[in-house]
Amino acid sequence: MTPSSLTTSSLTRRLFLLSVLWIAPALVITGIILTDLFRTHAEAELSRRMAQHLDELAAVLEVTPDGAVALARDLSDPRFRRPLSGLYWRVDGPGDRVLRSRSLWDQALDLPADTPKDGEVHRHSLTGPNRAPLVAWERSLRLPGAATPVRAAVIVDASDVQAATAGFSRVLGVSLALLAAGLLAAAAVQVRLGLGPLRRMRAALADLRAGRSNRLEGAFPGEVQPVVDDLNLLMEENRTMVERARAQAADLAHALKTPLAVIANAAAAPGGMDPAVVAAEAERMRGQIERHLARARAAPTLLHSSGGTVVLPVLRQIARTVARLHTERGVDIQIDGDARARVRADPVDLQEMAGNLIDNAAKWCTAVVRVTAVAAGGGIVITVQDDGPGIPADRRSDVLARGARLDEAVPGSGLGLTITEELARLHGGSLSLETSPTGGLSVSLHLPQAAR
């Protein structure tokens, strides 16, 4: 399997293969280490036993009156007396005389040329009867009454250690194979259980696509829940934007209905169509279309405004524009508030929300419109107060209905407050209507505060 296929395969397959990639080498290395430890221990134990045999052989050696070397008694291990048992001894005495254990029977077993120093034990590898691998331990002894040192050696068949090591390796291999199977099974179960939340998420997405739900439902682990929350938020934002697009289409249709009716009436008039009326209504429709196109262009940034917008400069710009529209009435628009106030909204949307409120207040005020922007409750509150007639408390909910107008004599489409409330809600804010200290209307626009 190539690295690219591993990264593009399913998570279950990738996690299981990664488990195999660490379990298999780990168990192989463990097997090698344990086998080597067993071999080392077996050889150390064999060396200890052979050192005891060598000490016993040295203890039973004696020099006869004629100067020859002999055994005072047989060694305790009966294998030294059983022919070709795999355990032997040999003593090279003065005058090239050689003593051998009965277990060598008629076999000759020569030691390599060597002269160990007093107290030293040398080890040699030999080939014994039936070409069996042998290991010899020898030492040089000075016996009382002997003219020259005596060379004593004990020899053992090493195939026993090799067979024991091979047997241990087979048992260990089977054990590690069973352990590997168990670990892989546990890894498979772990992968399946661990990926269970993703399968539940896939099922929830299938329900979402099939229309059986409108969000991802269910409880998920802490590692997955943020993804689910983000997906739900994204879907909610998409639904909100679709609803906003539908509302904008309805707003545009509503705004164009009156100019079209005026043009139709002008066309049906007995004196013919008045070009001035047509031009005025066409300009009115063009303004409505441009306004809604600007809102559509601002839509992608509606829910993702990052840097935020400083409030007071926008309010002052709007105040200057609205004041020019009401020059003949001498409307005084006062702007005050926190110069550092910054809202989490696009400048275009803030202009539209605040512009609707200030323009509406200027239409209904007697002389003064007061606008403030202050931080409150973790957000920014923009309050627009006028000294006009106000709105009765039992009618305030009516003015927020789409297209509602309490006085048809005042120009307008009846959409200003509705659009402002809609934009505020989409930005995570709200709109509230109260009575101003001067008896007019006080409109508070609550928007989330952006980081300064």
UniProtKB/TrEMBL annotation:
The record's section on Pfam families has:
HATPase_c
User: HAMP domain spans which residues?
Assistant: 192-243
Name the chemical reaction catalysed here: ATP + protein L-histidine = ADP + protein N-phospho-L-histidine
For this entry, list what GO says about its biological process. phosphorelay signal transduction system
Q: Which GO terms describe its molecular function?
A: protein histidine kinase activity
Protein localization = Membrane
The enzyme's E.C. designation: 2.7.13.3
Where do the Histidine kinase domain residues begin and end?
A: 251-451
Q: Which PROSITE patterns match?
A: HAMP, HIS_KIN
Q: Which residue ranges run through the membrane?
A: 15-38, 171-191
From the Swiss-Prot or TrEMBL record, give the protein name: histidine kinase
